[in-house]
Amino acid sequence: MLNTQSVSFEYNQSNSFEFPDIELSEGSNLLILGESGVGKTTLLHLIGGLLKPKTGKISIGETAITALKGKELDRFRGANVGMVFQRPHFIQSLSLAENLQMIQFLAGKNQDLHRIKVVLDRLGLISKLKENPRNLSQGEQQRAAIALAVINKPRLILADEPTAALDDKNCFRVVELLKNLTKRSGSSLIIITHDQRLKSEFANSINLTRTESLIH
Amino acid sequence: MNIFKLGIKNVTAKPLSTGLSLLLLSLGVALISLMLHVDRHLKEQMSSNIRGIDMVVGAKGSPLQLILSAVFQVDVPTGNIKLSEANSLLRNRLIDYGIPLSYGDSYESFRIVGTDERYPENYAMQLAKGSLWSQSMEVAIGAAVAEKTGLNLGDKFQGAHGLSEGGHVHEGQDYIVKGIFEPSGSVVDQLILTNLQSVWDIHESHAHDEEENHEESQKLKGEHEEHAADSADHTQKNDDHNHDEEGHGHEQEEGVEQDYEEDREITALLVKFKNPLGLVQLPRMVNENTNMQAALPNYELNKLFSLMGIAVTTMNIVAMIVILVSGISVFISLYLSLRDRTYEMALLRTYGASRGQLLGMIFQEGLVVSISGFVLGIALSRIGLVAVSLLLKSEYHYDFLGGGLIWQEGILMLITLLIGFFAALIPAITVYKIDISKSLSDA
C-alpha cells in the first residue's frame, strides 16, 4: 500500500537525510522509532506529501505522490492521508463537529453527521460534539485529534509523536484508540516517536538512525 | 461546512476586533454618505427654489441674506423697499416680470407672505383644495403648513409679528384659509400665501382704516399687478395712454393714488429677465442708482455651495481617514490572528485545502468585514438622515425625503471593498506562501 524507494531529503547542504525504504501493506501498522534529529518528522511529512523529497519515489496505493503537484496533491492528501500531531490543533473558530465537517468537506466527501457521531462515540467524545476543541482537556484534545485523522477513512494515518505529551494512562489509551480506529476504518497506521513505551504495542517497527546520512 | 462558512465563522469568532473594524468602517461610510446626501438634498432643494428667478431686489444689506430670506424664506429680510421704486424698476425693458413679496409675519412659525398669483405659478403649485385668495385677508397655504397646523378650508387664524413664534399677535384681524396647495417640494409648501393688501392692511390699518381707502388701494394693487405682468414697454405705453386720456381733474385723483404708492412698501421683488442682457446691466444699475440692492440667486448660491463645499470636503477627508484607519484595523486583526493561526492554516492544508482556497478565505474575511461595514454605514447614514431631516424640518421647515442609493455611494462601496481587499492582501500572500511542514514542526 505504501512504498518508498531510496528517498532522501535536504534542508541544506549540512542538513540532509537518507531514509530506508518502507513497504507497508494494506491495514497494517508500523512504528518508527528514533531519537530527536534523525529526521522522523521529515520522513512523515515526506510520506504525507507535505515535503518533496530530493530523490526517490513515494507511492500510496497506485499513486506516486511524488509526481503530484499543487491542488492535486492537496486533494489526494485530504482524501487518503490522516495526520495526528504531537500537540493537537484545531480550527479555532469551529466546534468539534464543525471541525470534522470541515475536514470532510476539504477531502471532497459528503458531510456525514452520522459518521462524525460514530467516530466521536468510539472516542468517548460524543458529549463534546458542539464544544469548542479549545475547551477540552489535553487527553480529550488528543482523542479529538484522532477523530480528525480517521473521519475520512483515509488509506494511511500518520501520527507524529502522538503520545509524547501524555502520561502513561493516556498514552496507552490513545495508542489503543489509534490502533482500534484505524483498523475499523481499514487504514494503515504509521506512528513515529521516540517514546519507548510504545515499542511493546507494535509488532512491526523500525529504528531510524542518522548514520547513513553522516557517512555521505 | 465549507470554506465560505469557515471564513464567516473566523470573522464572527473574534467579536472584539471585528467589532472595532466594523465600527470604524461604518462610521466613516456613514459620515461620507450622510454628507453626500445632505449636500445633494440642499443643492437640489435650493436649485429648484431659484427656478424662474433671475434676480432678487430688496433693501440694501447682505446679498446672501436677501436671497436666503426672499427665495428660501430662511433668513430675516434685509429691510423693506418702496413699492414705487420697485414699480419704476419694473418698467425697464429688460425685465420680463417681477413678483412682489411682502413678509415679516408668521403663524406658528410658518411665514405669511404677501404676493400675487404669479408666485405660486412660478413654482407650478397646484391647489389641492379651494382656491387662491380673492380679497384681503384670504390665504392659500402650503401642504406642510396644512399638515403641521391642521388648518383647513374656512379656518381662521391670526398672524403674529415676526418670523418666529411668540411675536406680537395681530388681534382682531383674522386670516381665513381659502385654498390648500398640493405638496411640491418647493419652498411654497412651508408658506402661507396671501395678497399684498393683507400685509399692508395688517400693518397700516391704523393709518388707513377707512373702507373707501381699502377699496382704492385694492384697485391700485390690481392695476400694478397687471403692469408688472405685462411687458415693460407695454406698461410704459399704458401709462402714457392714461396721461393722455385723463384730464386735470383726474390727475389730482391719481396724485392721491401716488401718495398711497409712495407709502407702500414691499420686502423684496423676484425678477425674471426678458433676455440675458439683463444679467449684465440690471444688477449694476439697481445697486448703483437706487436705494435698493439686487442679488443674483445663481451667483449667491454658487458662493454658498463653494463655502459648503469646503466644509463637505473637510468632513469627507476626516471620514476617509476613519475608513483608512478601519482598513488598517482590519489588516492588523487579520495579520495578528494569522500569526496565531499559522498552525491552523497548515492543518487545513494537511487535510486537503489548496493554497487558492485559503487565499480566497483570507480575502473573504477582509471583504466580509468591509461589506458589512459598508452596509452598516449606509444604514447608519439613513438614521442620521432622518435625524438631520427632523432637525431641519423643525428649524427651517425643510423636508428631507428620499434615502435611495446615489451613485457616489457606489464609489464609496468600491472604496470600502478595495480597503478590505488591500487589508487582506499581505495576510493572504502570507497564507499562500505558508510552508506546511515547517509550520507543523515549529508548533
From TrEMBL, chain A:
SUPFAM superfamilies: P-loop containing nucleoside triphosphate hydrolases. Transmembrane segments: none annotated. Keywords: ATP-binding, Nucleotide-binding. SMART domains: AAA (SM00382). InterPro entries: AAA+_ATPase, ABC_transporter-like_ATP-bd, ABC_transporter-like_CS, ABC_transpr_LolD-like, P-loop_NTPase, Sigma_54_int_dom_ATP-bd_1. Residues 2-215 form the ABC transporter domain. One of its GO terms (cellular component) is plasma membrane. GO terms for molecular function: ATP binding; ATP hydrolysis activity; transmembrane transporter activity. Pfam families: ABC_tran. This is Putative ABC transport system ATP-binding protein. It comes from Algoriphagus iocasae.
TrEMBL record, chain B:
Residues 206-253 have a biased composition (Basic and acidic residues). Keywords: Cell membrane, Membrane, Transmembrane, Transmembrane helix. It comes from the Bacteria. Residues 206-260 are annotated as: Disordered. One of its GO terms (cellular component) is plasma membrane. Residues 317-435 form the ABC3 transporter permease C-terminal domain. It is a multi-pass membrane protein. GO terms for molecular function: transmembrane transporter activity. It comes from Algoriphagus iocasae. The keyword Nucleotidyltransferase does not apply. It is found in: Cell membrane. The chain crosses the membrane at residues 20-38, 304-337, 358-391, 411-432. The keyword Transport does not apply. InterPro entries: ABC3_permease_C (IPR003838), MacB_PCD (IPR025857), Macrolide_Exporter_MacB (IPR050250). Belongs to the ABC-4 integral membrane protein family. Residues 18-199 form the MacB-like periplasmic core domain. This is Putative ABC transport system permease protein.
